[in-house]
Each structure stands twice: as C-alpha cells, then as structure tokens.
Amino acid sequence: MSKSFLVGLAMLMAATAWGQERVTILCRGKIHNESHRFLNGNTNNGAVDLSPEADVAHHSGAIWEVVHLAGDEVAFRCVGNTHNSKFVYLNGITGDGKVDLAPDTHPPFTGTHWKEMRLPDGTMSYLCLGADKRPQHRFLNGLTQTGGVDLAPDNDEANASGTHWEVRPIVEEVTLLCKGKDVIPEHRFLNGNTINGVVDLSPDADPKRFSGAVWQVEHLQGREVALKCMGNVHNSKYVYLNGLTADGKVDLAPDTKGPYSGTHWEEVFLEDGTLAFRCLGTNKNAKYQFLNGLTRSDGVNLTGDTREGDASGTHWEAHEVR
C-alpha cells in the first residue's frame, strides 16, 4: 500500500524513526566546495571521502542504508554499485581518527556503531561508539576543503563545522495526486508526455498506461527539488517538470540548468497535510508561482497562491512508487 510522501519524509527525517531506509548525507562544513559535498564510500577499496554528487550512475557510494540498531544507535551500509563483502559499513577508527568501510558491525568493528544527535541548527551529528575511546577522535567529520573524512574531537560548529550533516531521504519515484476540489475521475494525477513535452492530468498512475505519471524526485538543496518524468518513451528534450513563470505555463524541459530555472521547485508543506510546489524560476511573477492542477479541464499551470478554495489544485498528495 502506498503511503504519503509527506509522512514518509517526516518519518525519515526524524532521528528515531529510521528503519532500513536509503539516504544521502551532505556535509555542512563552513568551507563550501562543490567538489566535496556528500559522504561517499568506495566499495572497491574501502576508502571514505566526500563526492560532488550523490547520483547512482557516478557516485553510488554516496547512497547509504540506515540500519536502526538500538535507541539512538545506527549503522550506515554503503550501497555502492560494486558489491564487496570486505567493504560494507561506515567505520570510525577511534584509535587513529580514520574512517573507512568495514565488512560487518560485529567486534572488532565496533566503530560501525554511531550515536545520532540532532543539533540546534537542524543538522545531524554522529558520535562514533568504537570501543577504543579517544577524546580526540569522536565525531564523523567531513573535510570540505580537501574531500577527506575523519573523526573530530567535538561537534562545535565554530571549530568542527564538518561534523554537521544534512541527511536527505531518497524517494526514488512518486506519483502526485491533485487534490483540487472539483475532482473529475479522468483528471487526477500529474502526468508528463515525454513525446511532446505536454504536462496534464491523467485518470490514474498505472505505469503501463500512464508512465509519465511517475516522477523521480531529485533533492537539490534544502526543500528545493527537481521532478524528472519517468515516461517510457525517453526523449532528451522533454525530461524535467518546468514552470514558465513569465506566462504561467507548465511543460517538460531537457535539464535543470541554464534557462530552465523553472525546473527548480520548493516543497511547501500545507496545513491540510498536502504538499505544494513553488516554482523557483528566475523570472519572478506573483501571479505564477505554484504548480496547479485544473481538475475540470485536465490542464496544469502556475497560479499565485495555495488558497484551498480558489487554488485547491495547488494541493498535491504524493505517494511513493513501490
């Protein structure tokens, strides 16, 4: 049974609610370097560093399975494309402050156990629970200047900002159900046509009938996302959901760069438990901001606000595709 993306996201971001879920872990070190951002494990040689991206194709080691152990104790299993039984779990070596991948979470690999700590700034910090306690080697620390990863003595933001991590859940594919008040059975799910770039509403989200109603969520930064249409017909010209803030139209764009700033969307959590998407196109226009489903006509456009009466089509219910 599918569950609300909003609920799933809240559960994943809650420190004590994780089961075995897949996430990416972004280092929030003060020195910003686009080349050194995501915690990344190399399952070929056991090394751990920071990668520029967390995409499956190029940096699959930047995807981690969070294994909830006991209380606030977790282990991180590296989901690298190359399976190697010697290099699996994130492991802190408290004896010398190094970090690598270990084969399992049993002794002598006690450094694979981490205590998660939520910090006042909303980020997470991870205390290594290795048996060989050393005060100078305690917290998982990303070195954004060099791309390395080690253990720091504390998680103070002033002296060790690399110990602050933003954990991003991976929701690979979702469907988006429009909750507009004038619901017509034929006009319900956000649907992209990868043949001609048109975006409309489909009656259902069955991949066999409406594959364009399945979207891959790409987390960019904070609450900013891009929505990639997973239509069966691959067309490099029509890929990402794109809002045209100049005229309020919505279509599919080839990528999320350059002139296609409308492919960037801010997730807005509404009081009724639904989700709205604010278009972040550079050509700002107060009349054209939020993704809006026209449930009477099956069209999709941008509108100025999310008021439930006049703009109820801006309310979306997202479900993970299992």
Q: How is this fold's topology laid out?
A:
Blueprint lengths: L4 H9 L7 E7 L10 E4 L6 E4 L12 E7 L2 E6 L10 E5 L4 E5 L11 E5 L5 E5 L10 E5 L4 E5 L12 E5 L4 E5 L10 E4 L6 E4 L12 E7 L2 E6 L10 E5 L4 E5 L11 E5 L5 E5 L10 E5 L4 E5 L12 E5 L2
Antiparallel strand pairs: 1-4, 1-12, 2-3, 4-5, 5-8, 6-7, 8-9, 10-11, 13-24, 14-15, 16-17, 17-20, 18-19, 20-21, 22-23
Task: Assign the CATH architecture of the largest domain.
Answer: Trefoil
The gyration radius over C-alpha positions equals 21 Å
CATH class of the largest domain: Mainly Beta
Q: What distance lies between the first and last C-alpha atoms, to the nearest angstrom? A: 8 Å
**Strand segment count:** 24
Give, in order, the helices and strands: HEEEEEEEEEEEEEEEEEEEEEEEE
The chain-level structural class is: mainly beta
- Runs in which pLDDT lies below 50 for 5 or more consecutive residues are 1-19
Question: How would the global form be characterised?
Answer: elongated
- Count of DSSP H/I helices: 1
**CATH fold type of the largest domain:** Trefoil (Acidic Fibroblast Growth Factor, subunit A)
What is the spatial order of strands in the main beta sheet? 9-8-5-4-1-12
Taken as a percent bin, the fraction of beta residues is 35-45%
